[in-house]
């Protein structure tokens, strides 16, 4: 079995690769699959490993580096078609325990991470879907079987994954050229796509932010708390009383906006 691992790290995110690579070599499908890493980076000295393929990617900052990630993946489309499976992991991903075939997709051809927070138990009106009907990431209300997916881990067969990649790359570029950036960037577009495409759901054991870990959790993979390494990764977020109040008002406004299509 051959697995292609997609990984984007530019600018300050380059510091995460060594830890991710060592943990993936130790725990991710070890003894089950041959792994190649397609690393899109602006540091062409990032790794000398034989199974790491460095592809130059200019650092465009936030949010473009994440927003346009599917466009970035297509830089290696020809090579990716030759693998049995393709998986993307966020730069701050870190494996903690062995991960085997349970991560592989079902007959749908896709395996996607489900948001591990309180959204699992909330009404979909609270999900941060894109509310703008002019966006190709728009998700309409009054539907059935809503699930909110995260963008930090996803994969599948080349056929299914590259089909999704091409579609989302096109949709995001059209939105961007029309002056629209979806609410949660590429994650919003993923959620719109998965309203009409089935997938295998990857649970909390694969999708847990480090700061949310509790004594009850036994994760196989976490997303490292980037802010502990560098305040830069906070990206201007504020957590004072006024910021929390403003966030609550914004959530309420987006609920109203979703149902009456303002």
Q: Would you summarize the structure shown here?
A:
This protein has helices at 17-27, 64-67, 69-73, 77-80, 158-177, 186-194, 226-229, 241-260, and strands at 2-9, 34-41, 52-56, 85-89, 93-95, 110-114, 149-156, 200-202, 208-209, 221-223.
Strand fraction equals 15-25%
Largest sheet strand order: 3-2-1-4-7-6-8
Bulk shape: globular
What oligomeric state do the depicted chains represent?
single chain
Q: Major sheet: size, sense and barrel closure?
A: 7 strands, mixed
Unreliable runs, pLDDT <50, ≥5 residues? Answer: none
Into which percent range does the helicity of residues fall? Answer: 25-40%
Secondary-structure element pattern, one letter each: EHEEHHHEEEEHHEEEHH
Q: Tell me the Rg in angstroms.
A: 18 Å
Structural class: alpha/beta
Residue-averaged pLDDT? 92
Instruction: Find the count of extended strands (DSSP E, 2+ residues).
Output: 10
How many alpha or pi helices? 8
The N- and C-terminal alpha carbons lie at a distance of 49 Å
Q: Characteristics of this structure?
A:
single chain, 262 residues, alpha/beta, seven-stranded mixed sheet, three-stranded mixed sheet, globular
